[in-house]
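Subject: two folds for Thursday's group meeting

Dear M.,

Sorry for the delay on this. The cluster queue was jammed most of the week, so I only got both jobs back this morning. I'm pasting them in the order they finished. Each block is the input sequence followed by the predicted structure tokens. Could you check whether the formatting survives your parser before we put anything on slides? The first protein is the one we discussed after the seminar.
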Amino acid sequence: MTAQRASRVAFRAGTPEDGPAILRLIDDNLAVGHLLPRTIDDLRSHAHRFVVIADADAVVGCAELAPLSLAVAEVRSLVVDTRWRGLGLGSRLIATLQRQARVAGFATICAFTHDPAHFVRLGFSIAPHVWFPEKIAVDCTSCRRFRTCGQYAMALALDGATLQPPAASHTRIPLTPGAPGPFRLPTGQARGAGGQE
């Protein structure tokens, strides 16, 4: 696989029809413990929050921008097919989600990972898990690895702001598992976004 071929892939908004392909990517990476399991119904209902990397009709990568509050969105289910890794596609996915988070009005994006080095290279900082109580309430407390997962909370303040803990008066949106969320990602295709890994 060449970098030239990787430059021809399309970054586009996910659709419900992408659900099975996204599920395959996630399921292929569950064994290593880097992703949370998802259901096909969950993926179809949240498809509009995904950016997918398409090579012709094949989905070879994906990531979701999931709102945690009015100010914070999480990068979730970030995965690139093993045959397409090492070409900077993961960094380009994150750069695309950063732009969409700014447009949607979020101040911070976060991610949870076992390997913080990649996110640190992209400008994220390690932050305390308690800065993201919505994540803990929605995903962590129901996880069998709660308090033992070893994941790092990573955060990036958008538009050059200083990363700060959420204020006590921080306005939160009510999140119900499976709810579609308060915004939709822009439709259409964006090619060649972001930098290289």
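Second protein, same layout:
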Amino acid sequence: MSPVVLISEKLGIEWLNIFDDEYVYGPTPGIIEVAELLMTQLKPKTVIDLFGGSGAISKLAILRGARRVIYVDKNPEAALLNLRSCKDKIEIIEGDAFTFLNNKVQCDFMVADPPEELISDLFDRLKLIRKSITKAALIWLGPSEKAIEYMKIVGKFRMAVTAKVWGDAFLIIWKPGFSQIIRDVKRRLE
């Protein structure tokens, strides 16, 4: 079985987004592994799931104890079906993630899993993301070999590291007081 199918089964994700009548978007092993480890360590009460797709990250957040999750995506059809059982804890917003970020929202933990063509636009908003979190944020940077330039830039930021997991690169940023947790997470991942 494919990793997407296994993760979907584990999280109870039955519907995935299909675009162009053939490409299926679903939870990838890398983002699920990193997000789950971070949520287990940080114990966030509020989570924002940007570019939420199938709703897998939102569902994971509820399973890891989040009290409130905000899911944001332009195409929430699959998430509306997958998150029905959690609807009292998850707010589903159909809309643009960048517009949502401009509303100066706050959360303990944010996960952003943008389409590859929007990674640079999201990367340009790191300061806005940092202002929105009270603990940490996880951002997919793309396949490891394509994310090298982003990874070089991250080295210039304080309280930011990259991790490579399952062939993908991720950026983790955090607020003061969480350095040891993030370093432990990165060590476990690599």
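Two things I noticed about the second structure. The beta strands are 17-19, 23-25, 46-50, 68-73, 90-94, 107-112, 133-143, 160-165, 168-174. The CA atoms of residues 9 and 159 lie 34 Å apart.

Cheers,
T.
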